Amino acid sequence: MFRKRLVATAAAAPMLLFAGAALAETTISDTRTSGVATGSIGTGGAADDIKIASAGKVKPTASGPAVTVNSNHKVVNEGEISTSDVNNSTGIQVNAGVTTTVTNKGVIRLDETYEAKDTDNDGDLDGKFATGAGRYGIRVMPGGTVTGDIINDTGGGITIEGNNSAGISVESNLTGNLINRGSISVTGDNARGVQVLGDVSGNVDLRGAIGALGENATGAAIDGDVGGKLIIQGSIASTGYRYTSRPADKAVRDKLDADDKLQGGPAVRIAGNVGGGILLDRPPVAGVDYDGDGIPNDKDDDDDNDGKKDTEDKDLDNDGIDDSLEGTASIVQNGGAPALLIGSDTQSITINPVGTGADQRGLVIRGSIVANGVYDDVDATGVQIGTTPTSAFTTDIKGGIRVQGSITAASFNGEAKGIYLSQGAIADRIDLEGNLLAAVTATSKSLADESSKGATALLIGKGAVTNSVYNSGIIGAIVNGEKGDAVAIRDQEGNLSFVQNTGKITAVINPTDDADDKDDADNDPSNETVTGKAIAIDVAAAKQGVRVRQYGVNDGDDDLDNTTKDPDADGDGVDDADEPAMVGNIKFSAFNDTFDLENGTYKGDIDFGAGNDVYNVGTTTTGAEAIGAIRNSADGLTVNVNKGKLTITNAEVINGTAVNIGAGASVIFTVDPTTNANTRFNVTSASIADGAKLGLTVTDLISGPQTYTVIKTAPGGLTAGNIDQSLLGNSPYLFVAKATANTSAGEVNIELRRRTSSEMSLTVNQSAALDAVYAALGKDNKVRDAFLGAETREDFLKLYDQMLPDQGEGLFSSLDMLTRTVSRLTATRPDLKQRYGPDSFWIQEVNVQVMRETGVTIGSDTKAFGFVGGYEAMGADGGALGATLAFVNAEEKDDVAQVGEQTNISLLEAGIYWRRSIGKFTINARGAGGYAWLSGDRVFIDPKTNLIERASADWNGFTGVASLSASYEQEIGRFYMRPTVSLDYLYLREGERKEGGKSNAIKLEVDERTSSRLSAMAELAFGATFGRDLWWRPEVRVGYRQHLAGEVGDTVFRFVGGQPVTLVATEPGDGAVVIGLSLKAGTAMSYVALEGEYESADGEDRYNLQLAGRVMF
């Protein structure tokens, strides 16, 4: 027994010896001012591992490495390695041929005391970013192979200031992994955050933050081969700019010096083979089928099949890293270099797939990539595959590219490319599941001087190979300007044969205008001349037929409400949120192309080129909607509208083979009366199913009834059922359209004529103006187009009534009520007793509202407000003579008035009156004259097009007033009753007016107008008097007013250069019931009164409220 134990002990001794050696290391806890090396750090100069503890510092003052790995030992830095103003220095240097692991958890800082200054006093710094050179944080020296991992770990920070310097530089082959989980910052020309010149057998894992600043500075330059994966799951940025935020003020931008706008290199450059693919990753989320077991994500509670439930699993994707420690890849390049560049000028490279299934792509992007030109005339490229358009080498992305994150390229006056495949690039398919955007903003100039550079979201350049594109995300190309093209997808080589869209593809040009744009005198972008093209898909260079397919995919419960179905407006089974869309033109090839628009919407022009092409709109079960021109240069086009709506915007002949319109389909043709042209299919055969709908878009006005042939076939080639005419009812409401099919002649015709006023159910005045309005529409295309866009009577009348002038009936009635109110006040004695002698002064505030109903004329609402003052002297014979002065303002808005539209009158009136009391009788007479200032503002608004046109005018007028009244007051105790009769006359004469404004379709000339009204009223007042020296009197009045003579003047107007039109005025009935209330209070020498009155006439209600006061002295 003893012997066995002895043997076991002896056998274990060598292993214990090796274990002791593995655990041995030299720890630096103090400050060293000279370099150290693993080959001599140990006791007696022996080799050993080095650990720089948190309190330890290695701070050499001479060139060379601070720490050298020159033996098979490890280095861990938890403290500080630093130099200042030392050129050709290295934090940790790994010599070739060693086996080691280098881990930085502390600080490596090789900096300098140099600081840039504002030497020219222009408000920004000047000079270089750095003056020193040759500084490296961790450097693997060339000349052999190093075995082991190089790690800048979590918490580790590398800061380098110096030209031709790097944070981590691997210059020989590395059998192991290169990992960055910390931060790296390098400043200086030709700076490299991470540089790989040799081959790496394992992974290059960049999960931390890397920044490179300086001319030709690159965040990560992977120039050697990578045997494993290249993983980016942190931020990497590069720029040569001193300031990466674009100043909004051009004057500030112009002050920047050349050294403020140096160009950096790519944020990430990959010039070697990558055996495990390139992955720009993000933290995992539950519900993703990481194990690829085919179990639906919502039913698989162990997505990575590691035996842990997703709710308890801290590593959902089973990549060995706690999910909480994982970030999202972010690559940013401010400048003209690509943010991500994959390709080599010296060799052909291959990027193998990242994984299996959907990840069987050489490049998988789940994070974000941003390229921003920042300053004028600087191009921006998000991702570039291949180096130059003349490269002799290939860049093969095996399996293609998958984008689940976002790629954005933005340029000012330069060219923007989201993904660019250059010469020699190979990516068999591109899957776009996230966002891909390219945007260009042109510097504001006249069109001739504006940059023609455009934005292309996906550019497959000449010499590049991509066969298919699948989009389920968003692809966008935007040009803010007028000259550059906005292109979502363009293939210049011609290998692209299939494009599938289940997401959104958009190409948009937004015109701009400001003071620097000298094309016209205004700052209105809507009237700019646009020469750039908005193109969704350009496959004109294709070497074979191309199929474009768009369809909808229900992706689940979009509103997160499991109790209700998602909205599905067209009832085709694809909910609204999941319906795809495409905006922009499509340019097909000279081969046999197909556009399957199975679902969603498409807006743009299609050029099918030559070949036997097919255009399918909708399927038997799903609907689609398309609007745009259709053109082809051959006779082989077949158009099948199965379900949905096709609006053809070009009034041209379309030669083809066949047109087929299903029962659930609508086709809208375009007519251009200016050129007497229309959309017309010349085909061999056509079929129109029972219930199919045909419609019409009219681009201009017609002079008389017209018949347009929209489909023409060979004899016997037309089959037609009953055409549903309902869609023709939604043609411009100005017109009446009817479709007929003549199968023997092989023709489908649409008859078009103007709609009559009786068919429109117009009033007398609306009918009188119809021809004049129709003629005026030809003077302004925007106003004309607004009417051509009105498809219903309601939409039409909203526009039509805005064209007519205000007839002033509400204003006249308000003036009539105001002047009668003043006359009634002059007939009122200043006190309750029959005393005479003291003079008196009185003042009255008046408020009037007149509400008119729409009838022959348009209804309106008028509000008036004013003050009236008077002075009178009373004699002992019972008479009084007085004078009045009044100023009132009234505003009328008709029922169709838009915001800012009204007619105003300001009236200054002076008058005299006489009153005589004989016992209980009182008689009164008044006369007055006034001068009026009138103004009118009309606004034409089309809410569909956001068109706003204004017209305004000022004119003058005068008034004459006469009034006579008599009353008798009978007291019964404290109560009294007072019958009153009165006769009132108002005369108003308005001068002619001519409106000013931009649109000749809106401006009016209105003749002078005279209005008068003579009315009589009989009323009976009941009241009571309370108090003696201080008294108060409530009173109620009822009566009837009868219209005797006079009328509101007719309005005679004409559009500029047009014929006169008379709009007949209407009187508000022959009589009106009057109800009044008042409350007076006073003393022997004064009183105040609050009075209100309501008159109800046929079609017009009048309200009056006033506050009056009188003082005798």
Textual characterization of the structure:
The chain is elongated, with a radius of gyration of 44 Å. The longest helix is centred in the first third of the chain and has 22 residues, at 2-23. The chain contains 7 helices and 85 strands. The model is unreliable at 1-23 (pLDDT under 50). It has a 40-stranded mixed beta sheet that branches. The chain is mainly beta. Among the domains are: 284-321, no CATH class; 594-755, no CATH class; 797-1112, Autotransporter beta-domain (Lipocalin). A hairpin with a 2-residue loop joins β74 (970-972) and β75 (975-990). 7% of the residues lie in helices and 47% in strands. Residues 834-1113 form the Autotransporter domain. Residues 287-326, 509-532, 548-576 are annotated as: Disordered. InterPro entries: Autotransporte_beta, Autotransporte_beta_dom_sf. Residues 1-24 form the signal peptide. This is Autotransporter domain-containing protein.
Unreliable runs: 1-23
CATH structural class of the domain at 797-1112? Mainly Beta
CATH superfamily of the domain at 797-1112: Autotransporter beta-domain
CATH topology of the domain at 797-1112: Lipocalin
The DSSP helix count reads 7
Please report which band the strand proportion falls in: under 5%, 5-15%, 15-25%, 25-35%, 35-45% or over 45%: over 45%
Largest sheet: 40 strands, mixed
The CATH architecture assignment of the domain at 797-1112 turns out to be Beta Barrel
Tell me the distance between the termini. Answer: 143 Å
Residue-averaged pLDDT, rounded? 90
Shape: elongated
- Give the structural class: mainly beta
Could you tell me the number of beta strands? 85
Share in helix: under 10%
Tell me the Rg in angstroms. 44 Å
Domain Autotransporter: 834-1113
Protein name: Autotransporter domain-containing protein
Organism: Caulobacter mirabilis
Biased composition (Acidic residues): 313-325, 513-525
